[in-house]
């Protein structure tokens, strides 16, 4: 029977550098080691570009873009230290999860030039500069601004496509996060104007030979399936796109959550478990 290496292409947020996570980064790394992970991408959130575009928890904590920029530099230094310290026990990547808010086309390349992450995870948490996944209320606000939930999906996948083509991130994070507070997402994913956008984006992922994050945090939050939803998973398999588990852990207690279930789903759909590395 094939041995499946434990990996996370999108993981390792910590309370040391993320306001909605817990524990120190070293504690999180030790949890991955204790669970026998072969390699892990530590994918801390990029600092906010402006006061208006901080996460709600960052504003509540009194943080500023300048402080977050400084903290991100500290994260990179610490993650590099842990890379070296535990190199004989685990392969760590010092990575960065980026955003698509106003100004990202200049801001993200500047961050990459300064901090030189091993790779970036291209994520969309902001649509029209509204952090739609923070709460059901913020989701409703984003949908109202877009002109309804269907149009929120349109805007989300259009932003994602723009980001993929512009940045070509090694990993595309939680591809269908836009469904987070939508109980009717399965029906919506079948709508021709939404499905066409999904197919276009997957074709871009294939064209640029990127990895899709099979994000298991959805299960930890009570969803019935990870990001990617099964219909999108079918399409990704038909395009022969690399799909790799990401536990998207936010503390040592999240490390490895639902990994076995995720592997079983991917094996059922015929994906290779000889995991593609992001670099």
UniProtKB/TrEMBL annotation:
Superkingdom in the source lineage: Bacteria
InterPro entries: Histidinol_P_phosphatase_HisJ (IPR010140), PHP_dom (IPR004013), Pol/histidinol_Pase-like (IPR016195)
Family, per entry: Belongs to the PHP hydrolase family. HisK subfamily.
SUPFAM superfamilies from the UniProt entry: PHP domain-like
Pathways per UniProt: Amino-acid biosynthesis; L-histidine biosynthesis; L-histidine from 5-phospho-alpha-D-ribose 1-diphosphate: step 8/9
Pfam families, per the entry: PHP
Keywords: Amino-acid biosynthesis, Histidine biosynthesis, Hydrolase
Protein name: Histidinol-phosphatase
Catalyses which reaction(s): L-histidinol phosphate + H2O = L-histidinol + phosphate
Residue span, PHP domain: 13-215
Catalytic activity, EC: 3.1.3.15
Species assigned in the record: Desulfofustis limnaeus
Class in the EC hierarchy, top level: hydrolase
């Amino acid at each position: 029977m094939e041995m499946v290496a434990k990996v996370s292409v999108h993981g390792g947020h910590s309370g040391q550098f993320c306001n909605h996570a817990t524990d120190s980064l070293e504690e999180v790394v030790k949890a991955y080691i204790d669970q026998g992970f072969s390699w892990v991408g530590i994918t801390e959130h990029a600092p906010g570009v402006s006061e208006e575009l901080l996460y709600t928890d960052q504003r509540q904590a009194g943080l500023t873009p300048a402080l977050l920029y400084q903290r991100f530099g500290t994260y990179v230094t610490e993650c590099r230290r842990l890379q070296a310290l535990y190199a004989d026990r685990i392969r760590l990547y010092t990575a960065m999860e980026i955003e698509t808010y106003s100004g990202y086309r200049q801001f993200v390349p500047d961050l990459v030039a300064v901090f030189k992450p091993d790779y970036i995870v291209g994520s969309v948490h902001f649509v029209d500069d509204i952090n739609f996944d923070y709460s059901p209320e913020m989701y409703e606000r984003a949908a109202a601004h877009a002109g309804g939930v269907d149009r929120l999906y349109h805007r989300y996948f259009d932003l994602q496509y723009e980001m993929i083509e512009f940045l070509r991130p090694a990993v595309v994070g939680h591809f269908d996060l836009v469904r987070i507070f939508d109980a009717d997402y399965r029906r919506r994913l079948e709508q021709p104007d939404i499905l066409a956008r999904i197919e276009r984006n997957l074709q871009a992922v294939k064209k640029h030979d990127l990895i899709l994050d099979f994000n298991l945090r959805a299960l930890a939050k009570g969803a019935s399936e990870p990001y990617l939803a099964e219909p999108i998973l079918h399409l990704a398999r038909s395009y022969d796109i690399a799909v790799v588990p990401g536990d998207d852990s936010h503390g040592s207690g999240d490390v490895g959550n639902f990994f076995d279930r995720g592997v079983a789903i991917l094996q059922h759909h015929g994906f290779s478990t000889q995991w593609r590395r992001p670099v």
